[in-house]
Amino acid sequence: MKLKTLLLRLLLSIVSLVVFNEFVVYYVVLLKCQWPTKPVPVHGLEPVNVMLLADTHLLGPIRGHWFDKLRREWQMHRAFQSAVTLFQPEVVFILGDVFDEGNWVNQKEFENYVDRFRKLFHTPRGVALHSIVGNHDIGFHYATRPNLVQRFADQFNNTGVGLISLRGVNFVTINSIAMEGDGCYLCEKAEKELKAIESIFKCGRGIGQCKDVPKLEEYSRPVLLQHFPMYRESDKECKEHDAPSVELYRERWEVLSKESTDMIGDLLNPRLAFSGHSHHYCHMVQNRLKIEEYTLPSFSWRNKNDPSFILARISLEEHTISRCRMPEEQTILTIYLVGGILILLASTLKVGGFVSQLYRCRDRRDYKKLTK
Q1: Is 174 helix (H, G, I), strand (E, B) or coil?
Q2: I want to staple 120 with a disulfide (CB 3.0 to 4.6 A). Which of 77, 104, 188, 289 is the partner?
Q3: Cβ atoms within 10 A of the Cβ of 231, count?
Q4: What secondary structure letter does DSSP report for 271?
Q5: Successive 10-residue mean pLDDT values, the chain, 372 residues
């Protein structure tokens, strides 16, 4: 074998290993996931196909090594783009903590943050993307400031309580930081917005004075989307969970308070809830509000060795859920290690054969031919 051919094969082997681990593997793993069973259409309205993820925690200029940032962002970008390409959801919701240092960076750094986010999590035309606010985006309740709230609102149009209706399916987005219940400007505004949405839902059922109240396409009990989970003591209450250890949760830190959870339940009468924040998966068949709740793990390999996201089909009356797992960090490292060893062994054997041939050459012409 000629030296140039040997080197070319070695290079191609290395490139193939990198391409598989950094591109192809996401499709291979995600092809194991499928949309859940489709609920029956209600009033002629098809279910909405939804993709949900949480806690992307894009690193900023303060914490984290540059290579760590590059690596994690590439992983999330490839996983997200592969999922959107394969499953083609109608809408994507990111349940808070889009940024890791959103409450620390200055305005210029925040704008750079937003530009990076939009490049990494770009969606094609026809796929809506909504980002819920989290504590790493604007700070915990005690640390947030009006300018932090406003700049997130300017970029994402969502820092309070909002209503998004798609074919009669009503999604209510909630700012968990505003659910402190202490009468602060942010909390007072959020409670007013909750009550306004309550009026919309009441009018959807034909209750109350509805002259100036926006009309719903169809009334259906809402789906809650927020960063903090509803109040629960710990993940022991989950039917399924993957936290490495089960610890007691503190109100207003790891979960909403009992009072805020009950207030949301009383005002909105929801039927389903999604949340993030804990970085671990939890499925509750019945939470404090006696409804099903899914707490999503972090989408970043920096926080989770085995990230995952959810595909949901939601109609006016029913919902079906699939949890989609992404490649494990350990699997990628193992493939690199085994692949590297195999390439090294094969190269060593071929180089040994080449050297042996070179040694056996009897004249200068054979030598030149072999080394071309």
Answers
A1: strand
A2: 77
A3: 20
A4: S
A5: 76 92 95 96 95 96 87 96 97 97 95 96 96 96 92 88 95 96 90 95 91 92 98 95 91 96 97 97 97 98 94 97 94 93 83 60 53 52
